[in-house]
Amino acid sequence: MGGLLAAHLATVCEVSVLTRRDAHAAALCEQGLRVSGKRDLQVSLFATSHSRELPEFDLGILACKAGDLEFATERIAGLCPTAALMTVQNGLGAESLVADHGPWPIISAVTFISGTRLSDVHIEYELDAPTWLGPYSHTATPYRLVEDVGSLLRASGLQTESMPDLTGAQWSKLIFNSAINTVAALTGLSHVASFAMEDDFGDLGRLVRALMEEGVAIAAAAGVILHDDPWQMNLDALARGETRGSDYAHPPSMLEDVLAHTPTELEFITGALLREADLCGVAAPLSEAMYRMVRARETSWVRGRQHTSATTAGA
Predict the structure, then answer these.
(1) How many CA atoms lie within 13 A of 236 on its CB side?
(2) Which residues pair with 115 in a beta bridge?
(3) What span, in angstroms and rounded, lies between the C-alpha atoms of 7 and 285?
(4) Mean pLDDT, consecutive 10-residue segments, the chain of 315 residues?
(5) Among candidates 131, 179, 158, which has minimal Cα distance to 291?
(6) In terms of C-beta distances under 8 Å and separation of at least 24 residues, what long-range contacts does 104-107 make, across chains too?
(7) What are the Cα distances from residue 121, in Å, to 41, 116, 167, 171, 269?
(8) How much is the pLDDT for 310?
(9) Residues β-bridged to residue 65
(10) By CB atoms within 10 Å of each CB, which of 131, 211, 233, 247 scores lowest?
């Protein structure tokens, strides 16, 4: 996602990228960044793995997994205090975490764009979908600033909608993500047509819809008016995938993490939803079950590594 945003923005303004690895930064500086698929772009930009080498910036976009957000924000603490920072993480809570590390005005964002990293310098753009922006109220971010950033993103070729209050949009995606990601993580299925099938008793869509209905009930109890119906979002996402051909299926992020045996964003997505349910006194037994089973999957590979390490040491 970060590569997609950087490449598009580099067509309309100067862009700098902060990477984890020296080799990644060097490759971007030498070869530029290429995007193929939904758009064909080849852009030049500055990249570094050392935050103090970043030039002054007016807008910072934190494009990382939610679990990496604190580390990423710590790296830029003290830089450009008047710059706007935009969060694009899944789930709830990213803005408050960022606000703890600096006085920046924060823009909340929800995005549906996605791509596949083919190399350090090449991203395949898969889903050309909307990005929603809104001001984070706790930093008194002016809405005019949000509109300016939205205009910049649109000028770069990205679908963007600015909203005075992003809460309903965040919750819509939260409920959608909680259902789709946990089901994918536990079944090993990418987001495929079976996520919407409900005709037969054993159809997977029945579980997906029931999970989303729990989320909608939690939102209602929390006083949140949803921007979109999560079930319709499910249908729309599947329809977008069908335009790619019958062999295409978008892998949800939790599935990618499970396959790679890396930590998922469970706590920021389903965990956040369940914490809201607890505050509102709403029962969500299916979501609780999915949460605990994904937690168990994460535990299984940690224990597996520990067992392998112990066996190797014993040998």
Answers:
(1) 13
(2) 125
(3) 42
(4) 95 96 97 96 97 96 92 94 94 93 95 91 91 93 97 96 95 97 96 96 97 98 96 90 56 91 94 97 98 94 57 51
(5) 179
(6) 104/60, 104/80, 104/139, 105/135, 105/136, 105/139, 105/140, 105/141, 105/142, 105/145, 106/135, 106/136, 106/138, 106/139, 106/141, 107/133, 107/134, 107/135, 107/136, 107/141, 107/145, 107/146, 107/149
(7) 11, 11, 34, 33, 29
(8) 46
(9) none
(10) 247
Distance between CA atoms of 209 and 252, rounded to whole angstroms? 17
Domains of the chain: 2-164 (3.40.50.720), 168-303 (1.10.1040.10)
**What backbone torsions phi and psi does residue 202 show, to the nearest 5 degrees?**
-90, 5
pLDDT attached to residue 270: 97
pTM check: above 0.85: yes
Which residue in the block uniquely carries the two structure tokens 């890396």? 262
Q: Which residues pair with 107 in a beta bridge?
A: 86, 135
Angle in degrees, 0-180, between the axes of helices 270-280 and 204-221, rounded to the nearest 10: 50
